[in-house]
Structure formats: C-alpha cells, structure tokens
Amino acid sequence: MSIKVGIISSRFNQPVVDELLQACLDKLKEHGLESDQIFHQTVPGALEIPLALDLLALSKKYDVLIAIGAVIRGETYHFEVVSDQSAFGLIQVQLNHHIPIINGIITTNNDEQAYARTKVKGEEAALVAIEMATLAKNLKNG
C-alpha cells in the first residue's frame, strides 16, 4: 500500500493513549504499511494536536493524518472545552489543507470506559485512515 501516514498523539492520559496508538499501529501494519510509511510524534495534550497536525499538513508529505488522544471527564468544565476544541481544530486542519484527518481522540466519563475502547478505537482510526487516504487520492486523480 503506497500511502504515508502522520500520527500525532498526546502524552496526557498516556497509558490509555499508548494502548490506542499501539492498536492503530498494529492495524496499519497488518494492512501492509511499513514503518517508513508512518511518522509519529507526541505533544503534551489533546489541545496541542491540531497545531502539530497543521504543521504536518503543511509539509505535504502525508496522505492522511491521525490524531490519537484520550480526554477523560474530571470534576470541572475543562473536559468539554478540550473535547470540543480539539475536535474543532481537527476539522479546521482537514478543511484548510484538504487532507483527511482521523479523529482518534476518545472522550469518556472515566478510565474504565477509556480502556474498554482503546483497542477498537485505535483499530478503527487505522482502518478509516486507509480508506480516506485511498478515497482522497482517487478523487484528486479524478
């Protein structure tokens, strides 16, 4: 498969994010991607992911970009801000650069829900990335 994937993951809630990331990487490799087709970088938290993806999109080296993170509800309103604004930022990057951005930032009410979703959501991010990269290439080449 001839696609290049850029992945930005957050370090906040790292144990959950590590499981999401590993599931995503495993699924990409299961579908034929080699390590040299995948770039990965970490950032402090989910709110920093859109900027890092924007910079990757500017490079024009990637066919698809994946955001990996975990926002787990706490006792304050911060959960809503981070969830909403990180998702909004991903959409902006996608539309501004005409590159598929896969939202693998899970949002849950607690750690138990987060861990229950890591494998499935990580794998889904990889599969959607492959599908959207292929679709975008086909539509651009018309």
Please give the alpha-carbon distance between the first and last residues.
19 Å
Q: Please give the number of β-strands.
A: 4
Shape: globular
**Rg from alpha-carbon coordinates:** 14 Å
Uncertain segments are none
Q: Could you give a short account of the major beta sheet? A: 4 strands, parallel
Mean pLDDT: 96
Number of domains: 1
SSE string, helices as H and strands as E: EHEHEHEH
Q: How much strand content do the residues show?
A: 15-25%
Question: How is the largest sheet built, in terms of strand order?
Answer: 2-1-3-4
What CATH first level would be assigned?
Answer: Alpha Beta
Any idea of the CATH topology? Rossmann fold
Indicate the CATH architecture.
3-Layer(aba) Sandwich
Structural class: alpha/beta
CATH superfamily: Lumazine/riboflavin synthase
> Percent range for helical residues?
55-70%
- DSSP summary: helix tally: 4
Structure in words:
The protein is an alpha/beta fold and 142 residues long. It has one domain (5-141): Lumazine/riboflavin synthase (Rossmann fold, 3-Layer(aba) Sandwich), CATH 3.40.50. It is 56% helix and 20% strand. The chain has four helices and four strands, in the order βαβαβαβα. Helix 3 links the parallel strand 3 and strand 4 (101-108). The longest helix is centred in the C-terminal third of the chain and has 31 residues, at 111-141.
